[in-house]
Specification:
The complex is a heterotrimer of chains A (547), B (340) and C (157).
Chain A lengths: L10 E3 L24 H6 L14 E7 L5 E7 L1 H4 L4 E5 L29 E2 L5 E7 L2 H8 L3 E6 L6 H4 L25 E5 L2 H7 L2 E9 L11 E6 L5 E5 L4 H11 L7 E4 L15 H12 L3 E4 L2 H6 L7 E9 L5 E13 L5 H11 L9 E9 L14 H18 L3 H8 L18 H12 L5 H5 L78 E2 L6 E2 L1
Parallel strand pairs in A: 2-13, 11-12, 15-16
Antiparallel strand pairs in A: 2-6, 3-5, 3-7, 4-6, 8-16, 9-14, 10-11, 10-13, 14-15, 17-18
Helix pairs in contact in A: 6-7, 11-12
Chain B lengths: L2 E13 L9 E7 L5 E4 L9 H13 L6 E4 L17 H28 L6 E3 L4 E4 L2 E7 H12 L4 E6 L19 E13 L5 E11 L6 H20 L31 E6 L21 H13 L10 H11 L9
Helix pairs in contact in B: 1-2, 2-3, 4-5
Chain C lengths: L2 E8 L2 E8 L4 H9 L17 E4 L2 E4 L12 E3 L11 H8 L9 H14 L5 H7 L11 H11 L6
Parallel strand pairs in C: 1-5
Antiparallel strand pairs in C: 1-2, 3-4, 3-5
Helix pairs in contact in C: 2-5
The chains are: A alpha+beta (547), B alpha+beta (340), C alpha+beta (157).
Chain lengths: 547, 340, 157
């Protein structure tokens, strides 16, 4: 194919589609204007975080667990402290508030992850100490001199093994290795209509199992941050973060430092793809600057980026479709397992997003899903391009191909036949609008010379939707499978719960959300609640702490 | 040994923005003494073009040339709060915040111009080239520079604007999953062609034909950057990449780019892109966010194409030669399907 | 720790710096001289973001000992265009061949080395020349097109 790639126009804008919905006569919007940052990029002068130079810069490198799971009996720092160039060694005791969950910024989930672990590690690569030294090489040399007395513990790496009774518990606050949704269930449910009844009516029932392996975001610039003391007790932090105020708020929380004392500078980042949201480096760099009074850099090398940096997590999906002879899908059920790794980070939210997306871009009258956020002893997962969707879209579309094969339909026609249209009711009970799946299918068929039937060519996202297709199911089958006891909520969006009383100004904040369910689950004898770690909450939205 | 060709198809949609809402973005805009504008944000440009797309949106709304606008991001001391650049939220959320800020600044600019021209501000329009004039009377005009200078040095006005965009946080029903996720979707369909070598198990993507619906293409070249680069990443996800090649085992994890595989410049497939634009009701000038979804259709399209070529279903990504060979062995050799 | 003086030519200007034991050229250029155009991407010699020219040859600055450039002639992306941009820089801008921009300086130096040695490369030769430079954003095609624009005389090299 070499030599041909640029010979033909490789892109066209099909302005004839939806032309009546657009005014194309704008001055600047819609123009192929050059990037504002392009001159900086081609001259090598765009200021990435590591392009800020500081006299006396110190370098931070972490001492990491070689075990998937272990108790830390003792950490002997004496030899490392005597190494040349070592200025200070951080342990978990130095972190003012050494427990966080990334989505506490959204009041979602329970604090579960230390900045630097003190007593136990839950994945290979988890930090237990951080060396601050005058050069990266000296920091590396000192890391090698730290002696940790490990007591290896049983570990679990597979999501379906992890949720079996008796599996090693990854996080004590989640004894069944599953995140607790809304304080009520050990998974997120989607229930729409009656899939079991529909499977009985279907001409074909088609099942599949799909697996996505973990993927590294692999930005060419690795994650990192440089912090330096500013005037008046403030600290400046130059960061590769994808979310400036997210990282600022995490730092403010774990360092117990008002956000007004933090000055974050970033915005020019060498690729992110989701891997620069976790805000790991900023708190460590700022803590280093606080304790040494000198500028400190915390940065992953490429190996850490690949094996310690949180990947797009693995996902396992089971899909079952009920399909009629003509290709109409009348029922679809999902069981999904997101491998969250050792801590929650963003996986719990990815599932909510994924569930809101089911059953894909199709109108199916009966849909059901049980999706689990499972803890295993591996590198925690986080966001990546297509967050919460890429894995299940792979599963759905690979499955659609099997459905097409089973009913003997052209795969493109199968999609158009089942595609959602304006006005259709979706499984999360909101009406579809602004749809364009059918048109995309038609354009690709035309380009690829795939012949579609006249009916499929005439189909449109803007017609034949709504009406009957806008109705909610006559009845929806619900169940209490996976009910848990003793959890106090701890995630927002618990429908029907009264807002918990909040202190001070927070009562006036429109976004204040319940942090605890007000009543125990039905028909359950209240049990001893599991120890709640980190019940103090912090919100970047409301900007203050509350219980 | 034989090479088998196959074609595979997939279609997807993608929710734009943090799906439950509750993710505000803010923007501040002010004019400088020469009538140029600075947009202050805390948004992140990680290559997707945040600085450029907000610059065009600001210029369009203000009614000034894009060269008169500079976007300054990200400094937490000067840029107001923004949730961040993820979840395809940047263009949608920040774009709307910039429109709101630019409208407020524009209104002051027109008031200043009206005072100088001794007309009613509601009778004034901008020509997008740096002039403000009376509607229907281009002769009665003032430059944006003169209006800005009059505002600042004569009238004592600040030409400035504040903007925020927030979709309120949605609840989620624990029992049914009822929720109000996102407000708009992008769409895509993709057909890929592959060649499968039944001796080595190697899969080569030889061609991609796609249609992407992205709302209004706010800058067609930036849209193309996302779609072309994103589809490359999708191809990489499909047949090359993973940090754990024998998941769930943790062994053989790559630690450098020699072991973490991605297609290089010699492994490209021609990608013929068509862009469709159905404006989103609540998007900035109808824009959605093409950045994330562009990779998604490639993954299933590749496995479907492998099936079409040799009859082997690969349900575990990435598609490695080892998996293809094991599939071929189980099948007793290639069984081409040729359905597309 | 012993500091050792090194002198060399950087983008046409004589430079002197002190290097520490084992310091690589990337670190010396960035921290010792203040030329921030070569980027740290891996320090393993596998990404190409730190590509510089040493006596015209593309080299990975992360794999070169700083003291080894004594008396050598170095070129980096910071020296490509001053008052006017180099045709390669113009072509990268025209072709939208950069997104995050992090791989761009290294990519430009590999392209420059190619065009110095072979002003009329084929597409395959362009691909080979940049095959050690990783880009995670663009999918490479715009980069190849930009280099070919210069090679094919659409812009004077």
């Amino acid at each position: 194919m070499s030599g041909t790639l640029t010979d033909q126009p490789m892109i066209d804008f099909r302005k004839e589609f939806f032309a009546d919905e657009r005014d194309d006569n704008l001055n600047e919007v819609g123009k192929p204007t050059r990037r504002q940052d392009i001159t900086g990029h081609v001259t090598g002068r765009s200021p990435f975080y590591d392009d800020h130079l500081f006299e006396g810069l110190l370098h931070i490198r972490c001492v990491r667990s070689p075990h998937h799971a272990a108790r830390v009996r003792r950490i002997d720092l004496s030899a490392a402290e005597r190494m040349p160039g070592v200025v200070r060694i951080l342990t978990g005791k130095d972190v003012p508030r050494n427990l966080n969950t990334l989505l506490s910024l959204l009041d979602f989930g329970i604090d579960d992850e230390p900045v630097i672990s003190t007593d136990r590690v839950r994945y290979r690569g988890e930090p237990v100490a951080a060396i601050i030294a005058t050069s990266e090489a000296r920091a590396r040399d000192a890391v090698a001199k730290v002696v940790v007395d490990w007591e290896p513990l049983p570990h679990v790496l597979d999501v379906e093994e992890a949720i079996k009774p008796g599996a090693p518990v990854v996080l004590d606050i989640y004894p069944s290795n599953k995140f607790i949704y809304h304080g009520k269930y050990d998974h997120q449910k989607l229930r729409y209509g009656d899939v079991e009844a529909a499977f009985r009516q279907a001409d074909h029932v088609i099942e599949g199992r799909y697996q996505m392996s973990p993927i590294e975001q692999a930005p060419i610039e690795t994650c990192g941050a440089i912090a330096t003391p500013e005037q008046n007790g403030r600290y400046a932090c130059y960061s590769a973060t994808q979310a400036l105020f997210f990282s600022l708020a995490v730092s403010s929380k774990v360092l117990e430092m008002p956000s007004s004392r933090l000055h974050f500078i970033g915005g020019t980042v060498g690729g992110g793809f989701g891997g620069k949201v976790d805000s790991i480096h900023e708190p460590l760099a700022i803590l280093g600057a606080m304790l040494t009074g000198r500028p400190c850099k915390c940065m992953w090398d490429r190996e850490e980026e690949m094996q310690v940096g949180a990947p797009r997590g693995a996902e396992r999906w089971y899909i079952k479709d009920g399909v009629m002879r003509d290709g109409r899908i009348i029922a679809r059920s999902f069981t999904g397992y997101f491998d969250s790794g050792a801590y929650t980070r963003l996986s719990s939210y990815a599932i909510i997003k994924g569930v809101g997306h089911l059953p894909g871009p199709y109108t199916i009258p009966n849909v059901s899903a049980n999706v689990y956020c499972v803890y295993t002893n591996r590198t925690p997962a986080t966001a990546m391009r297509g967050f919460g969707i890429t894995g299940v879209d792979f599963a759905i579309e690979a499955h659609m191909d099997k459905v097409a094969d089973t009913v003997g339909l052209n795969p493109i026609e199968l999609r158009i036949l089942n595609a959602y249209r304006d006005g259709d009711m979706k499984a999360h009970r909101r009406l579809a609008k602004n749809c364009a799946l059918i048109e995309c299918c038609q354009v690709v068929a035309e380009k690829a010379g795939v012949k579609l039937s006249p009916a499929m060519l005439a189909a449109s996202s803007r017609k034949d939707g709504g009406g009957e297709r806008a109705r909610l199911p006559i009845s929806t089958v619900t169940d209490e499978h996976g009910l848990v006891r003793g959890f106090q909520g701890g995630s927002y969006g618990r429908k029907g719960a009264k807002p918990a009383p909040l202190s001070g100004i927070s009562q006036t904040m429109p976004l204040a959300t319940p942090t605890a369910s007000q009543s125990p689950p039905p028909a359950a004898a209240p049990q001893q609640p599991p120890p709640r770690v980190g019940s103090m909450r912090f919100s970047s939205i409301s900007g203050f702490r509350r219980r | 040994m034989a090479l088998h060709r196959g074609r595979g198809f997939a279609a997807i949609n993608y929710p734009i923005g943090m799906n439950l809402g509750g993710d505000p973005s803010q923007a501040l805009i002010h004019s400088n003494p020469d009538g140029k504008f600075t947009v202050a944000l805390s948004a992140i440009d990680l290559g997707q073009g945040m600085k450029s797309v907000t610059r065009q949106i600001a210029a369009e709304t203000l009614g000034v040339p894009v060269t008169d606008v500079y976007v300054d991001t990200a400094d937490s001391d000067t840029g107001p709060h923004d949730m961040g650049s993820f979840a395809s939220r940047g263009t949608h959320r920040m774009g709307n915040a910039v429109i709101m800020a630019a409208k407020e600044a524009r209104a002051v600019m027109l008031e200043a111009a009206a005072e100088e021209l001794e007309v009613d501000a509601t009778d004034l329009v901008t020509d997008g080239r740096g002039n403000i004039h009376v509607r229907g009377a281009p002769g009665r005009s003032i430059t944006t520079m003169a209006a800005a200078q009059a505002a600042q040095f004569k009238q004592g006005r600040t030409i400035a604007g504040r903007g925020i965009f927030l979709i309120p946080l949605s609840e989620v029903d624990p029992d049914t999953g009822e929720m109000t996720p996102v407000s708009t979707f992008a769409h895509a369909a993709m057909l890929v062609e592959v060649e499968v070598d039944d001796e080595t198990g190697e899969v080569t993507v030889t061609d991609m034909k796609s249609a992407y619906e992205v709302g209004r293409a706010l800058n067609p070249r930036l849209v193309e950057q996302q779609l072309r680069g994103g589809a490359w990443m999708g191809m990489s996800h499909a047949a090359w990449e993973t940090t754990e090649p024998y998941y769930p085992a943790r062994d053989h994890g790559p630690v450098d780019f020699n072991t973490y595989l991605m297609p290089g410049p010699g492994d490209l497939a021609p990608h013929h892109i068509s862009v469709l634009e159905r404006p989103a009701e609540d998007g900035p000038y109808g824009g959605k966010g093409p950045g994330e979804m562009c990779a998604n259709p490639v993954l299933p399209a590749v496995v479907n194409a492998v099936y079409d070529a040799v009859g082997v279903r690969i349900d575990e990504l990435p598609v490695t030669p080892e998996k293809v060979l094991r599939g071929l062995r189980a099948l007793g050799g290639a069984k081409p399907r040729r359905r597309l | 720790m012993a500091l050792k003086p090194v002198t060399f030519i950087l983008n046409g200007e004589p430079k002197a710096a002190f290097t520490e034991d084992g310091q690589n050229l990337l670190d010396m250029l960035r921290r010792g001289v203040g030329d921030l155009s070569p980027k740290y991407g891996c320090a393993q010699g596998s990404c190409g973001a730190c590509t510089v020219l040493i006596n015209g040859d593309p080299q990975l600055a992360c794999l070169v000992l700083a003291e080894a450039v004594e008396g050598q002639n170095l070129e980096t992306a910071a020296g490509l265009g001053h008052a006017t941009l180099h045709p390669l820089q113009e072509a990268f801008m025209q072709r939208f061949a950069a997104q995050c921009g992090y791989c761009t300086p290294g990519m430009l130096m590999s392209a420059k080395a190619l065009l110095n040695a072979n002003p009329r490369p084929t597409r395959d030769q362009v691909i080979e020349a940049i095959s050690g430079n990783l880009c995670r954003c663009t999918g490479y095609d715009p980069i190849i097109a930009a280099i070919l624009d210069v090679a094919e005389g659409r812009r004077a090299p």
